[in-house]
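Now for my pick.
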Amino acid sequence: MPVDARILNGKIVAPLAAARSFVEKLRKPAHILVAISGGSDSTGLLLALHEAAAEKGRDEVRVSAVTIDHGLRAESADEAEKVSLLCADLGIAHATRRWGGIKPVSGISEASRLARYRLIAEVARKIDADLIATGHTIGDQRETVAMRAARSGGEDNPGLSGMADAV
């Protein structure tokens, strides 16, 4: 039984069907850089986009991948290597970038997010990617809304929202 995902209009669509729809709407030729951590959300995104792009043909849509190793956990380098091996098995060009240097004592989430975006953007520029795709679960969306509510002083704030589907 396929896993379902909700999209904005409330219609339930399987991830591969959503990836096909996304790829179909792209201006061709297109080069997609997928940010993949190795978690289920980003791995599912990579696999779905890879299959949808393969159906279109490499001349139409190309998929590459990037993994950011924040260097915050001992196992992060091994996780990045596993992603690299997966990409090699699939024939997907992959880059790993490590966030080096001294890490801040406080505000580590914000600092790591900014470092991640900077490193991903550097790879995108280097490989001439047309767009960057990231995958998030509904739990990630809920967490984003909760964090924004905590910062803004309450859940009734009309400006609260989850992550945008595109920027």
